[in-house]
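Async update (no meeting this week)

Hi team, since we skipped the sync, here's where things stand on the single-chain job. The sequence we agreed to prioritize is pasted below, unchanged from the tracker. I ran it this morning and attached the output directly underneath so nobody has to dig for it. Comments welcome in thread, and please keep replies under the output.
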Amino acid sequence: MTRNAGFVVRCPREVLFGWGKVSELPQAAAKLGKAPMVVVGGSSLASTGRLGDILGGLEAAGLRPHLFEGIEHDPSVQTIDLGRAAYTQHGCDSLIAIGGGSVMDAGKAMAGLSAEKAPTADFVAGKAIGGACPPVICCTTTSGTGSEVTHVAVLTDKSRRLKASIRTEGMMPTVAIVDPELTASMPPQQTAFTGLDAFTQAVESYVSRGANPFSDPLALDAATGIGKWLWVAYVDGGNQQARSEMALGSMMAGLALASARLGLVHGIAHPLGALYGLAHGQACALLLPYVMQFNAPVMANKYADIAWRIGLTKDDNADRAAVALIEWTEKLCEDADCRRPLSQCGLGREDYPAIVQATMNSGSTKANPRTVTEDDVVALLDAAM
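Output:
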């Protein structure tokens, strides 16, 4: 990387970060429209009473929210089509997505495609997005994807066994609300999966071919913070500092990847998710150590940076420090019950051709720091089996 190399910075117009910041949602929404569609996932927000409070706050601010519930893990093209239709039917003029990565991706996709006529499946298959996009507010309830600060949505077309991202500049949230308090109720397993997703994004952004002077400090600080605090958040979910550090790290990793892109972990994780229904964070956890080993010959110095910053070793030899980071990552995944052979997740050799093709077509794979061949993908799958 050279300091004068060209790069693009993408970020929301406004980020509201801090414990309790969700209370500022009504004021932020009132600046963007009068009839927001509020997109949420399952029942967790409702069961805690927060959803009622949020809707009540929006109404008290003079808004007419329309609630769209039921976003599933890995949102489907059919769900997005239903949301697009509801947005038009109810005369909505803005969109608020409150949830984890799947909910925020769904909300951004519904907004980004709200002016389009073609079905969502066409855009997942590669059709360009050309319509105008209404303003979006993303309020994250997990510390994982960083979707609140990116212009990308990952969707699934189950009929084609395809999981792919759509993107357009207009899908960048106008406002991102990152309130660590909303993550405090995550159970340990979800904390681990989402946290390892965020850590993967930080690491992959830092070593990406697209890494640049803007993304590098964000990615390194994100990897450091997540590396120091993920285990604390896992074992003590109510720890306010751990939740705040994880939320900050996840957001910073999202900002970094929006500029730098990712790598081979994400190139393989998407087809694994499409084929076997693996949670994205779990897929990242299963793949990350193997991909780090693959990239170590060309990225030892940057892996060493992360190891030194987290405090994993005092050895000033970059190669040995990189090994320390890889071994620590393997142990963290194992201790958090996020490691198992991919064969136990359903992976079979009969699916290798589809996985290899999707991996090689992925923009994330193209941004990987070490050139990837089809044989490399097969070898990595064999190792992870």
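Quick observations from my side:
Residues 188-384 form a domain with the Dehydroquinate synthase-like, alpha domain fold (CATH 1.20.1090.10).
The chain is about 50% helix and 10% strand.
Reply here if anything looks off.
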